[in-house]
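Forum: Protein Structure Q&A
Topic: Joint prediction for protein chains with partners

I've read a bunch of threads here and the consensus seems to be that you should model interacting components together rather than docking separate models afterwards. I'd like to see that in practice. Below is the full input, 347 residues plus whatever partners are listed. Could one of the regulars post the assembled result?
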Amino acid sequence: MKKLFVDLGKNSYDIIFERGLLSHVGDYIKLDGKKLLVMTDDNVAGIYADAVVSSLEKAGYEASLLVLPHGEKTKSFDILPAVYARLLKERITRKDALVALGGGVIGDLCGFVAATYLRGIPFVQIPTSLLAQVDSSIGGKVAVDLPEGKNLVGAFWQPKLVLVDPDALNTLSDAFFTDGMAEVIKYGCIKDKKLFDLLDACGGKSGLMPVIDEVIYRCCDIKREVVEKDEKDKGERMLLNFGHTYGHALEKYYNFEKLSHGMAVSVGMYEICRLAEEKGLTEKGTAETVARVCSAYGLPHTDDAPCRKVVEGVANDKKNLGDKLVTVLLKKIGESYLYPTDAEFFA
Ligand SMILES: NC(=O)c1ccc[n+]([C@@H]2O[C@H](COP(=O)([O-])OP(=O)(O)OC[C@H]3O[C@@H](n4cnc5c(N)ncnc54)[C@H](O)[C@@H]3O)[C@@H](O)[C@H]2O)c1
Ligand SMILES: [Zn+2]
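Posted by a regular:
Agreed with the consensus. Here's the joint model:
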């Protein structure tokens, strides 16, 4: 077992890492309330829900299960009344807690429900996708989507505990594993040349799996450090958006149909490095290095969409919200900085 402590004053919590942990989560969850509602999706439920619920019962909790359809559609504002109704039916009080068992969709939704039900109740994150284990389960950003866009209604609501079982990745599809790898590569790019070199040396998923525990731990440690410095996302935390300005724009450009989030971020990381290299803002050769590691993990680095057109939409959205377009650049692999920019940068 390994542990990290996320130090956020009264909102602090542990992240616990252990292979096989999913079969005895009850040993780690120490909450005052006696009722727990486990929220999960219909893919994850069939594999892990029984073990999780029975371990919680063995630990003395009254556990119930809410299984929702898998996929981003579930993370919608419209689903909330039905979820709150279920919590009321189970007589979940402010002393009780929710458990998010699944990927980022379940984690974000469950966290948002926890943040808002009865003005806020505790929740525990048990992330099962790579993306959720290295990224979305830590840091307390919780949200649901509106028809107008993703994550438009949300809160900062930290979990009481995060439980990471790297063995859960054995049942995750290759496509979702690949998707999560974009975030893993991102951490190496922005903060950790040693991690980046390790990913490079592993040369792909099969080489990486024997050291996946170490890699997840390292990513979480980076996220911990960034979140501790900037819980509310006003400065340092924006570094986590490396590859995301262009990536998000590209996802949107294709109406979220052609490219997954990880694929779009991968293209975004390469494109921003390429453009910044041309302008002398990033060490030469960085873009090609990023491209090599991305493709080793099955991620694309180029796309046919016209750069400038892709970004114009985002630049306009930002302007309408009174925000500046700030992008994250690499000085070189492992060192990142914020750079205020505009759509011209991508011309
Ligand atoms: N809160 C944050 O800071 C943050 C950060 C990044 C992303 N996100 C959000 O995360 C969401 C994406 O998360 P995701 O990629 O995990 O998607 P997801 O939750 O949809 O999970 C991906 C797929 O894998 C399945 N799955 C998950 N774990 C599995 C396992 N162990 N075995 C078999 N199948 C498994 C799920 O059922 C789903 O079909 C997006 O909504 C995004 O906005 C949030
Ligand atoms: Zn991302």
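The mean pLDDT is 95.
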